[in-house]
Design goal:
Distance between the termini: 44 Å
Number of domains: 1
Number of helices: 1
């Protein structure tokens, strides 16, 4: 996957980063409390020394009905995890992008949460 990012920095400066990222979707993993699936990624060429991590989505239920294979009436929760290790190349000042990168990741995850909540609300039958 070819990925491009651009940020406006202080004093009218712009920061551009690009790279080729390999992504690997792992198989569904059954856990004692539910299920998890990971997507791991690693930059193989680009503007960072290191850019790698994973997305994990975990679904777990709060009240599994013993002896029943039915999902009816069970309450499920889903958690999205994002782990990233970023190391800039020598020419890129860490302090210049670190705070902004953290804010952008938080904003992206919040937007994903909002969209997921909208999808859930739209899928529920109205009374």
């Amino acid at each position: 996957m070819y990925k491009i990012g651009q940020q406006n920095l202080a004093f009218g400066l712009k920061f551009n980063a690009k790279g080729i990222v390999d992504c690997y979707e792992k198989g569904l993993e059954n856990l004692p409390f539910g299920q998890r699936r990971d997507i791991e990624f690693k930059m193989i060429e680009g503007d960072f020394q290191t850019f790698e991590g994973r997305w994990s989505i975990e679904e777990y239920n709060n009240g599994r009905c013993e002896g029943s294979d039915s999902l009816l009436g069970q309450e499920f929760h889903t958690t999205l995890l994002y782990v990233v290790d970023v190391e800039p190349k020598l020419w890129l000042p860490v302090l210049l992008v670190e705070g902004r990168l953290c804010r952008e990741i938080k904003m992206n995850l919040s937007c994903i949460r909002e969209e997921a909540q909208k999808a859930i609300q739209n899928s529920r039958p109205s009374h």
